[in-house]
Design a protein that fits this description.
Elements (H helix, E strand, L loop, with lengths): L2 E3 L2 H5 L4 E5 L3 E2 L2 H11 L4 H4 L1 H7 L9 H6 L1 H8 E3 L2 E14 L8 E14 L2 E12 L7 E11 L1
Parallel strand pairs: 1-4
Antiparallel strand pairs: 2-6, 3-6, 5-8, 6-7, 7-8
């Protein structure tokens, strides 16, 4: 179930609260391959399934760390719907720690907590604690704090 927020005042009401958890997203080899092509990162650990099976400590290809980070807006939008916006800006990654590799075929989901909201002359600066969970694993793929700027109408 998604939360709908239509104003700075409404966003502020959720300060210091866990907002929810997204649905799961399966990381496919096709997605990894497309990310490699888009970013020109062709490291074998992402693309060569046979070599990864025998030489990698993970036993399979793994998603690029930045591929999993790039899923943030997609997964975030499953948790919170922001209405009445002129624009949303990815502003900052304050801290991000990669804790565990995400192997091909893994299902990941986002858990989000709104840490703080500041009013910057009508622009909402929202700091969000994020955890990318891997189905079946106690250790998350990453944890961190990201900041979005919301320019409400």
């Amino acid at each position: 179930m998604s939360i709908t927020i239509s104003s700075l005042a409404e966003l502020q009401q959720y300060e210091d609260q866990e907002l929810g958890i997204s649905g799961y997203h399966v990381i496919s080899q096709e997605q990894i391959n497309q990310f490699a092509a888009a970013t020109l990162d062709f490291q074998w650990i992402h693309l060569d399934a046979e070599r990864a099976q025998t030489e990698s400590p993970f036993g399979a290809t793994i998603a690029h760390g930045y591929l999993t980070v790039s899923l943030l807006p997609y997964l975030w939008n499953q948790i919170v719907t922001i209405e009445n916006l002129k624009m949303q800006v990815n502003y900052e990654i304050e801290s991000l720690r990669f804790n565990q590799a995400v192997t091909v075929g893994s299902s990941v989901r986002l858990r989000a907590k709104l840490l703080s909201v500041k009013d910057l002359r009508g622009i909402a600066k929202a700091r969000i604690e994020v955890t990318l969970e891997i189905e079946g694993s106690r250790k998350p793929a990453y944890t961190g704090v990201i900041t979005f700027l919301y320019h409400f109408i």
